[in-house]
Amino acid sequence: MTSTSSPIPVTFSGSYEGTYLNSDQLEVISITDIISSSASILGCISILVFAIYKNKVCHQSVQPLFHLAMADFCASASLLASCVVHVLYRTRSDEVFTLCSYLNGCVTGFFVITFFLTAAYAAEVYMRVSFQDKQRTGRGLDPVRRTQFEFMYLMYSMSWVIPLAVVITMVGYYATFHQETAQKDIHTYCNDSCLPFFSQNNFRVCGSQSQSMFKWLRIYKYLFLVPLLLSFAFNSVIYVKTVSLLRKSFRQAGKMSSEENKRLTRVKKNAILFLSIFFICWLPTVLIGIISSVEGDGMDMNRYYPLYICQALLSPLQGLLNTLGYGWQRREFKLLMCPRFPSVCQCVQGRRGEHETSANMLLS
User: What is the pLDDT of residue 112?
Assistant: First the structure.
């Protein structure tokens, strides 16, 4: 394996002048990605296997998490495969480049799906709390419930279909475009298109003199960044509205009881936790995206190497942290999944109305 010990300065005629990461740095990033994505795969498997084994996949409080765990699993598995290819195949190969293009498409597509699914999860929480509020006041329950049910199925379906369709189309076109116009311009020392930087177009690490190629890759970058930022903003607004609506619903009957205060506190803590997971995992990616947009094609990648390490460590951990945050740390979720103490589960659930339980289980 060829290795260099200093940054690689590369200048292309009129298209790019900057400093790339060297092969040793890229290998450290890829190994970090492999470790983090492997941890996420194990976390996702714990949810998927348990839900299937216990026949809870279609349970109203498990199904949203099952969708999210499946998308996180696919994203982490694609990232793992991509980084393994990067480590194993470091010589020039058009076949490997094409494979990496599709693997990168899968990584991008499945992570964007997770962004959409977290937004759908937040929307479902708000709609269930809204229905619970209408249930307390007896306002138009049947039409509202039917409309919400149909809307949520549409949201979860579109969360899968739209990102995959867009990314598969783009990556297919990109692979074909590269084969036709830029095969000879691949830098001979690497196949670093296998190593996703998410927000930074690492494809250019191998270099291309085509201005059209750079423009195409910028579009590819923003197709990842825009859904990421919009999802975080949407989730923040929805969770604030959910907590506000739940507090209003509890206060309609007068002073909140001790149990209602505890439940509201749990909901707020979990909402903050969900947003914190999103923020921590993707902050390095957002920063790299902003820096690369501001500095343009002259970005010195070596200068921000520690940030790339943070990205490789945190971004692939989303699957594991989502599994813990949305699943195993939640009190109601653990009560649902307690096979050794069925009487305790029945006792806890039996004290509440069926819809009230389902409305709060997504956040409690």
Answer: 93
